[in-house]
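ARCHIVE CARD
Drawer: 12
Card no.: 0347
Subject: one protein chain, sequence and derived structure
Cross-reference: see card 0346
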Amino acid sequence: MNAPLQLNTANLRNIASASEVKIPRYSRADVTPGIVHFGVGGFHRAHQAMYLDALMNEGKALDWGIIGMGVMPSDVRMRDALASQDHLYTLSTKAPDGTLDQKIIGSIIDYVFAPDDPTHAVDILAQDAIKIVSLTVTEGGYNIDPATEDFDHANPRIEADRTALQSGNISSLQTFFGLIAAALMARKAADAAPFTIMSCDNIQGNGDLAKRFFLAFAHSVSAELGNWVENNVAFPNSMVDRITPETTDADRNDIKEIGYVDAWPVVSEDFTQWVLEDSFTQGRPAFEEVGVQVVSDVEPYELMKLRLLNASHQGLCYFGHLAGHHMVHDVMADSRFQDFLLAYMEREATPTLKPLPGVDVDAYRHQLIARFGNAAVKDTVPRLCAESSDRIPKWLLPVVRENLTAGRDVTLSAAIVASWARYAEGTDEQGNPIKVVDRLSERIQENAATNRTDILSFIRDRGIFGDLIDAAPFTKAYADTLTSLHEQGAEATLDSLLSQVTV
């Protein structure tokens, strides 16, 4: 048996001839940079980079190649993996019926680890060819002060970057805020047009948040810079959707069995959606030609996705984990979970949505159930349970608050919060330890430690839950579910909840 080929530009044709893997139809030598992207992970490579690759395969957007840029120590691994294979990688999409589509993506043309040479990184960002700087840095990357939800000016790395910019010492910059601000300062000094800052993070109003936080940093450097950014830089909102689990060694072995080696392939579901506000400083690729919905107002689509898909992920993960499930498709094989999520979406989430002309919301709800049950994707329950203190307040609690204000029921939303509280106790129903992965893990586990002696202890944390502790309809439903989880377990609790509603 021949040794597997190394994925690189020279071996592309041999890989294509020996397999059904699709390769770029364009010459990558013709691709020039137009975008710098911070946060090159699985989602970016299954989503934005994939859309650009599709355009390039049609002979378009060849001047919109992506330069990846990393600032965290963990980014070194991605830099090295991509550099070893000419920045190519495999995207494997898996449909619920088992259909597999595999293609090699070529839209990323370079990767820069900024701490190696911050001055070089700024030079790349400042060059005229870069028209978009995009972000998938997760909510935790935006330097949010958890107490105030404003920009954390006291972060030592932010303070250091502010001082460096004020003194002109860009060689010591540490954060993407500092690097981007330095490049904008260079553009301003050269009387050149700024780039667009395009957030692709899974945050409602991601462009608005990016604008607010970049302006906060820019104004703290100087009023002149802050005013220039405010008046000249575009921050489009977007809604992004594609389930992309973490790459495993099994995924790498699947590629090796085809006949080549890919250090970091990407696996995703076959569904993808991107709704993008058409607001750009220096133009954009023709994304609409490859399925992107380019619109004037993203918010209705954001709310649909965040309150149906993302909140439903939280609805299944804690109950599922407590019941002993590790894989999402195993959770969804139990019809009670399907019925619970459909009931939550129909009864509590959908009434809080804005009008969506032309969108069949009921069909979307049922499509989500099918997507969650896609066994081929091999999405994990622990992945969905991670960083709950960021997710629940943004995705689920707005549903609770809007329904309370309108006098509507919050039983199922409260039940999801209660399942998080039980999960945060740190053991499942079989007595197995749960590793709570959360930036506030110590705090939320401490809050959950007294659940059995003070049934409302978990939600007394006003920094996370605000005034919901004062809302009797919520606290009663929450306490009833948490008590049931302690006394009867997750599956019996779901049966009890479903007996109270009509799906």
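Annotation on reverse: The chain has a mean pLDDT of 96. The domain at 5-295 is CATH 3.40.50.720 (Rossmann fold).
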